[in-house]
Design goal:
This protein has helices at residues 17-21, 26-29, 50-63, 73-93, 107-122, 141-150, 167-172, 196-204, 225-228, 253-258, 293-309, 311-330, 357-366, 379-385, 401-418; strands at 38-39, 101-104, 128-132, 153-157, 178-184, 210-213, 232-236, 247-251, 269-272, 277-279, 335-338, 347-352, 369-370, 372-374, 390-394. With 419 residues, the chain is α/β, with parallel strands linked by helices.
Length: 419
């Protein structure tokens, strides 16, 4: 970190943040406690642009019907929109085929789908699964459940004081009993960007498949599943400017074809008798029943919106915001930043003196600054750093340097109050 104060970068003519902000009605329609809204809780859920809202309204008012099985016009339109969204996800992740994209209700369901579909079929007693100390509960609990059921063992790669996975320790966990690896691309609690390609290569050298939890990466950096060579990649729609209840799981076709279905019901079958059921082809094998059609169409629109802006431009703007926020918050006496990895996404977790993070969050809200407080569904991370919780400011491409200033000024007011 530079010893001299970081200046706010000059406006990038190729990235007009004010023009982008105009796409988000909530940023202008809501004034918490009469103050301008500084929405810095994007790691929990991003906001939705008007373009996505309009696409959802169009479906609900002009295309609403059930998909795949109907031959009437509305069903055909809905099916085309739904499958078009699948192709949007394919492009966004650079998957080889659209059949490698399974629609889910979010990243959590994606992880659970792999646990049930792959883990319960191929992992047995005495086998080992590797995760890291950075994981969200959604990438810990399903594997614990599997280990308890199968008599398998969960192995945990430790992290250092920066919040980075200790690579030598990760490498040393592999042995002949290792059967699966589940790792986050970006830590939701600290913002650490894991070197997932290297971690995947280590596993693949031993023939071990890898699932990547991409919930915090997909909104912030370009994701190329072919370049990563991951076996599975899951993310949530509500973190990429889409609706809640939407998400996707990428899986290599060869693995998806070997897996057992997670749910049984309509549309995931080719034929059913009382003696035998023949499952449908992928991706439909994993999409039983009537899916959340509207959320998936909204997800496709959201990914098209992000792609039109450009993920590299989004990442550059958010990195500049993070650098500026880190510099300004670090300069405040008594504020401790938790997580100082050399490669980070737009997450800043911190602790303000002896003030409980919940109190900090409440007081920041009175200034119009929305942050998240708590353990962030990452209690092992909190335990590693010896804190019960943190205040987490998480940035999106529609945030501004003025909002960082608002955050810093609000923290100063907290410090004065608790003087």
């Amino acid at each position: 970190m530079s010893a001299t104060p970081l200046r706010k970068p000059s406006a990038d003519t190729a990235f007009d943040v004010e023009r982008i902000r105009a796409d988000f009605p909530i940023l202008h329609n809501v004034r918490p406690h009469g103050k301008p809204l500084s929405f810095l809780d994007n790691a929990a859920s991003s906001q939705m642009p008007q373009q996505v809202i309009d696409r959802i309204v169009r479906y609900e008012t002009h295309e609403h019907a059930n998909i795949h099985r109907g031959v009437h016009l509305l069903s055909t339109l809905a099916t085309e929109a739904y499958e078009g969204a699948r192709r949007s996800v394919q492009r966004f992740l650079n998957a080889k085929e659209d059949r490698e994209i399974i629609f889910t209700t979010g990243c959590t369901e994606g992880v659970n789908l792999v646990m049930h579909g792959y883990g319960r079929k191929f992992i047995g007693a005495g086998d080992e699964i590797i995760v890291t100390h950075l994981e969200h509960h959604s990438n810990i609990v399903p594997w614990q459940m599997l280990c308890e059921e199968k008599g398998a063992k969960l192995r945990v790669a430790p992290i250092d004081d920066r919040g980075e996975v200790i690579q030598e320790a990760y490498d040393a966990l592999f042995n002949e009993r290792t059967k699966f690896v589940a790792i986050s691309h970006v830590s939701n609690a600290l913002g650490t960007i894991n070197p997932v390609r290297r971690m995947i290569d280590v596993a693949h050298a031993r023939g071990i498949p890898v699932l990547v939890d991409g919930a915090q990466a997909a909104p912030h950096i370009a994701v190329d599943v072919q370049a990563l060579d991951c076996d599975f990649y899951a993310f949530s729609g509500h973190k990429v400017c889409g609706p809640t209840g939407s998400g996707a799981l990428y899986g290599k076709a060869a693995l998806l074809e070997k897996m057992q279905p997670f749910k049984g019901g309509g549309d995931m079958i080719l034929s059913v008798t009382f003696e035998k059921t023949t499952f449908n082809t992928i991706p439909h094998k994993f999409e039983a029943g009537t899916p959340p059609i509207m959320p998936m169409i909204g997800l496709g629109a959201a990914l098209d919106y992000l792609s039109a802006i450009g993920m590299d431009r989004i990442a550059a703007h958010e990195h500049a915001l993070l650098e500026y926020a880190t510099e300004q918050v670090s300069a405040l006496d008594g504020v401790r930043i938790i997580g100082t990895a050399r490669e980070k996404a737009a997450v800043l977790s911190f602790y303000v003196g002896e003030v409980h993070p919940h109190d900090v969050g409440t007081l920041l809200d009175e200034e119009g600054v929305a942050v998240r407080t708590g353990h962030h569904c990452a209690q092992p991370v909190m335990q590693r750093f010896g804190v019960p919780a943190t205040v987490r400011a998480s940035f999106a491409f529609y945030n501004t340097f003025a909002e960082v200033d608002a955050l810093v000024e609000a923290i100063r007011k907290v410090q004065k109050l608790f003087g």
